[in-house]
Amino acid sequence: MQYPILGIDIGATTVKYALLQDTGVLTSKGTQRIRAASNAEFISQLQEIVSLDAFQDARTVGIGSPGPLDLEKGTIISSANLPAIKDCAIVGELQNSFPKKAFRLDNDANAATLGARFFGKAKDKTDFALFTLGTGVGGGCFWQNQLVRGYRGNAFEVGHIPVAAFSEKNERQGRLCGCGNYGCAETYASATGIQNSYKNLTGASLTAKEIGQRARSGDSHAIEAFNLAGHVLGLVAATITQTLNLTDFILTGGVAASEDLLRPAFERAFLDHTLPVFHALLSFVFTEGDEDAGIFGAAALFLEKIQ
Ligand SMILES: [Zn+2]
To answer: Whole-model pTM?
Structure first.
């Protein structure tokens, strides 16, 4: 691989970028507020970033973005946080503007998974799953030393695993998710899910962080909201383990900082819903992750061997 690699991390409101050097250090870091009143405006912002003087030597540019994406076409299909963005052909447009550079785009959870594999808590692991716990729940899976992408690159949407959708009477079950279905994991296990659990129990609208503080002071409803989130995440992890025989899980993002509140219910649900043959060598790592994780992940898109 030719260093430096330019990593661009598209977030909800900001875009962060830096050069990854062969020493594993990030240089020339920057952050901008996203300007995306239209596809054209957002593309020109990305063009400006790539053309900064500091990035002239970077021949490779990795971009991590919230999905859904079309990886074949190199487009952002739509974005919950950037409503004006629709079928935005960022790879094609950037490639036209910078023909000597190579671009790769992938969703932010896949990028985070590669970042963890090459720079983070999963360094040198060949098989693990990663959950990103924020306003939604995302995920990525490294399996047999390769990122699992699926048919169009949208594999491992763990937040939409239907943990609570089943009823023998065929009635609709579970909470309504942003994706339009009912009973998805993220309606319980995301920051928004935790807020809704607490609101259902008490009527009060607090942030997940505030609910965490209340839980630590003994508020039983706050504890229950986190128990529910931990339980649901444990069910998701159990589903994945029973499918792939994975032993290593990394839970990252703002909500994962509440390991003390999530882990007991997570472990209990995992153990209760997996066969004993899966209970050896388990590793569950909770980490808030640092602010550069997305940039490392985007740059790591060029470190993965695509077979
Ligand atoms: Zn959903």
So the answer is: 0.90
Number of structural domains found in the chain = 2
Under 8 Å between Cβ of 210 and 242: no
Does residue 306 have a pLDDT over 70? no
User: What is the distance in A from the centroid of ligand 1 to the CA of 97?
Assistant: 36
Residue 119 lies in a domain: no
Span 112-147, pLDDT tens digits: 999 999 999 999 899 999 999 998 999 999 999 999
How far is the centre of ligand 1, averaged over its atoms, from the C-alpha of 247 (Å)?
A: 25
CATH for 283: 3.30.420.40
The predicted structure's pLDDT at residue 290: 81
| Cα 236 to ligand 1 centroid, rounded to whole Å | 13
Residue 133 sits in the same domain as residue 280: yes
Tally of residues, the chain: 307
β 14-20/26-33 pair status? antiparallel
What separation in Å is there between the alpha carbon of 166 and the centre of ligand 1? 14
- pLDDT, mean of residues 39-53: 97
